[in-house]
Inverse folding.
């Protein structure tokens, strides 16, 4: 179990979530003088070792990220990056660091955001742990590019989500997206990035689709990690696309990093008959979105979360009430390491049959 | 010539087959045990259905549902393969167009389907636990030395059902043993067990769902009079059990097969066809997806189970 490689070479790594490893890797590659290890894609193995060393009743993202850390440490990474959030996620870093230390690994742990506090000076000090001579101006510039990259990725992602169920040539969207991400990871300046984005944006719009005007529309709400990491939600979006459904999803990295702060008041006001205060993490966002989806002709709502996600458990009865009031069908999924894939497929298929039947009548 | 349609519902415990005509009349039906081998069971079922079948009948469509729907659908080259929730709803709606609530308890799963004006509005299925399903009942019947078919008859004779902790199968079982060891009458224990199944179902699957009448109760457990009695008692509503309640899924899928019929005519000579599933691990990455390869007469007809193109096997 011990990390035996005692070289002085710094190898940095971070948790895995969707395709967001690309901007993260981009940023650190340009700012810190060290080797960057791309985390392995999440597989059954990740969740198995993650669960083995995690408390049993912790939410599943903890297990996924811990699993990724262990896989990376075994591949000789020695700097781990983690950031906390607005719920139990805020304590992930401290707990994971302790668990990994207890397992006997030797590493430096960099916790960029602790307990949801985003303080630039604190973050700067943390980055100094990786590279004491890093240049702040340069970091700000690349942070800017990375954030734009996230924005563009999410924009393209939204377009894909709305149209992938109707592509003429199967797999054309994914193929083009992979090509774009590859080019994104090679950019050096903001102008290059913008050019590539514009270029691919056109290409995406030119991909042939056969989309009827009144296709079925489904909104996905719920806990952020499970929504954003396809492995964690058993490729739910892919499955929905195979039924020719247009998918609407709000939560993405750009929203969480740059928009969430601004929307709190707006959302609370929008859904004021249901909620007065924030309920932690994305609970109030999801309540407001649920109201929006219910009042904007969506055929159904899918609420997904990892098992034991407390803020979402708090939001669920309210969401249920809204859906009853507007008579919009909703289905809840709770994912963890022991979920049966067949069970999800059966329920999803029935959900599709149900919304299609309602549409027909 | 009379056009007919075959619906097969392959559940964990039992396999149901039904042949219907275009007016929803049941021409023939069979109910047999799956006994862990769906392929064998279906072969037996079809042979049973074929016996003495009118020569004028031609099968224009086959539908499969239940947990082995995909495999059997491939085997019979079915024209529709659908989940059991939809199949049950369609089947029930044909006979009870006004139904508002369908309670279904099968061998391994239990579900509730809510409808309004003939449209499914909500449904749920047991997720974490199989407490209160048919397999639990039959294993407890064995423990008590009673045939599961007699269970209901015995239960309704009791006037004083014992209280059994019903939260979970394991706890219910240990509580049941305790009640037996302190000397309770067997019929009271059996009645208590039936009641606990109802309570568990309503607290678990039916949680947060508004149950309106007409209520239809189906699935294998609906044949149990004890469970039915306590459903009526606790819901304080009338609960309908159709004489064909155990066949509803099969009827529903037969109707769907009729709605999706093609020009194909099926012959039912499958007894001699060799059909097998071979599982293997992909080993392309650490996911180690389990890939199922389905062979008919040693010829690969389909393979599934892979999460990515790496594990794709062409038939």
């Amino acid at each position: 179990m011990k990390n035996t490689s005692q070289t002085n070479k710094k190898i940095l790594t971070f948790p895995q979530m969707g395709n967001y490893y690309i901007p993260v890797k981009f940023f650190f590659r340009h700012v810190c003088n060290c080797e960057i290890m791309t985390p392995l894609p999440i597989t059954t193995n990740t969740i198995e070792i993650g669960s083995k060393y995690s408390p049993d009743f912790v939410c599943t993202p903890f297990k996924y990220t811990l699993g990724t850390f262990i896989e990376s440490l075994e591949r000789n990474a020695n700097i781990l990056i983690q950031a906390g959030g607005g719920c139990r996620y805020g304590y992930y870093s401290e707990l994971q660091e302790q668990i990994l230390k207890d397992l006997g690994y030797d590493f430096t742990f960099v916790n960029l955001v602790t307990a949801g506090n985003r303080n630039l000076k604190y973050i700067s000090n943390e980055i100094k742990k990786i590279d004491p001579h890093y240049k702040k101006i340069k970091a700000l510039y690349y942070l800017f590019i990375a954030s734009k990259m996230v924005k563009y990725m999410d924009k393209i992602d939204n377009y894909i989500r709305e149209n992938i169920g109707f592509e003429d040539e199967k797999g054309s969207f994914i193929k083009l997206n992979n090509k774009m991400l590859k080019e994104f990871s090679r950019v050096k300046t903001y102008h290059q990035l913008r050019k590539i984005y514009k270029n691919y944006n056109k290409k995406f719009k030119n991909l042939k689709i056969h989309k009827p005007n009144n296709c079925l529309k489904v909104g996905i709400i719920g806990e952020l990690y499970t929504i954003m990491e396809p492995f964690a939600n058993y490729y739910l979006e892919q499955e929905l696309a195979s039924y020719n459904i247009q998918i609407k999803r709000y939560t993405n990295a750009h929203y969480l990093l740059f928009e969430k702060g601004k929307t709190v008041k707006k959302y609370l006001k929008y859904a004021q008959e249901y909620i007065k205060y924030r309920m932690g993490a994305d609970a109030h966002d999801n309540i407001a979105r649920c109201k929006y989806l219910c009042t904007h002709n969506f055929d159904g709502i899918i609420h997904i979360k990892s098992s034991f996600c407390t803020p979402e458990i708090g939001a669920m009865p309210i969401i249920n009430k809204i859906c009853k009031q507007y008579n919009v069908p909703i289905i809840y999924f709770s994912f963890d390491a022991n979920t049966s894939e067949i069970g999800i497929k059966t329920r999803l298929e029935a959900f599709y049959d149900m919304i299609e039947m309602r549409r027909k009548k | 010539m009379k056009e007919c349609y075959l619906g097969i519902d392959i559940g964990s415990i039992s396999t149901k087959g039904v042949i219907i005509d275009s007016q929803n009349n049941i021409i023939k039906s069979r109910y047999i045990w799956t006994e862990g081998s769906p392929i064998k069971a279906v072969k037996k079922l079809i042979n049973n259905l074929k016996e003495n079948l009118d020569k004028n009948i031609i099968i224009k469509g086959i539908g499969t549902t239940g947990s082995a729907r995909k495999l059997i659908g491939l085997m019979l080259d079915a024209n529709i393969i659908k989940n059991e929730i939809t199949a049950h709803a369609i089947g029930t709606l044909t006979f009870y167009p006004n139904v508002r609530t369908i309670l279904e308890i099968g061998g391994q799963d239990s579900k509730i389907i809510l409808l309004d004006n003939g449209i499914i509005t909500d449904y749920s299925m047991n997720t974490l636990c199989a407490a209160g399903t048919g397999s639990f009942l039959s294993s407890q019947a064995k423990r008590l030395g009673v045939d599961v078919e007699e269970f209901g008859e015995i239960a309704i004779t009791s006037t004083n059902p014992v209280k059994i902790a019903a939260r979970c199968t394991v706890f219910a079982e240990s509580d049941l043993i305790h009640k037996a060891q302190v000397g309770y009458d067997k019929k009271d224990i059996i009645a208590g067990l039936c009641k606990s199944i109802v309570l568990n179902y309503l607290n678990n699957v039916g949680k947060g769902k508004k149950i309106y009448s007409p209520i239809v109760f189906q699935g294998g457990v609906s044949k149990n009079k004890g469970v039915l009695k306590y459903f009526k008692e606790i819901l304080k509503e009338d609960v309908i059990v159709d004489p064909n309640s155990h066949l509803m899924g099969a009827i529903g899928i037969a109707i769907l097969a009729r709605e999706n019929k093609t020009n194909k005519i099926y012959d039912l000579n499958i007894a001699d066809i060799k059909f097998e599933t071979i599982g293997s691990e992909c080993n392309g990455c650490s996911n180690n997806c389990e890939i199922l390869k389905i062979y008919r007469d040693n010829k690969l007809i389909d393979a599934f189970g892979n999460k990515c193109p790496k594990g794709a096997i062409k038939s």
Notes: The CA atoms of residues 73 and 205 of chain A lie 41 Å apart. The domain at 11-134 of chain A is CATH 3.40.50 (Rossmann fold). The radius of gyration of chain A is 21 Å. Chain A has three domains: 11-134, 143-211, 213-361.
